[in-house]
Amino acid sequence: MNAKELLDEYTNNLAGIDTFKMEKNKRIGMVITPEIKAQLENIDREIDPIIEQFNTRAAELADLIKAEVIAAGETVSGEFHQAVYMKGRTSWDSKSLEGFAAAHPEILQFKTIGSPSVSIKARSK
Fold it and tell me: Which residues, at least 6 apart from 70, have a Cβ–Cβ distance to it below 8 Å?
């Protein structure tokens, strides 16, 4: 199979996942009584705001942790998590350097080209 055929099969596979998730939810909905549905909705109303509070606080803490780690300039380890410090990446103006290399080809010995990579994402229509 070529890459396009594999990509099309990948798309069909994802569609199958979605189809069977919907089928599963439909079947679950058919066996759950209205009373049980109401109880589940009550549980959601009770628990979801608490989960949202935890999510909000986790996001706030993540921002605070990142600021502290950047200020310290070093990785910090907790009991179960680690905030890994990564120094800023150096970047160069490749277009200008290619022009410079035309006049100074000796600089090309310092040029490396990394391996290509691929990310698969949904196409916008």
Answer: 85
In a domain, 48, yes or no: yes
Angle at 58 between CA 53 and CA 61, to 5 degrees: 125
Domain enclosing residue 57, as ranges: 3-88
**CA 108 – CA 104 distance, rounded (Å):** 8
Query: Which pTM value belongs to this model?
Result: 0.64
Residue 109 lies in a domain: no
Question: Does residue 32 form part of some domain?
Answer: yes
**Distance in angstroms (rounded) separating the CA atoms of residues 88 and 76:** 17
Q: How many domains does the chain have?
A: 1
Q: Note whether residue 43 is domain-resident.
A: yes
* % residues pLDDT > 70 (the chain): 100
Task: Give the H/E segment covering residue 31.
Answer: helix 3-31
Residues 26-55: tens digit of each pLDDT: 999 999 999 999 999 999 999 999 999 999
d(CA 25, CA 80): 35
Neighbours of 111 (CB within 10 A): 10
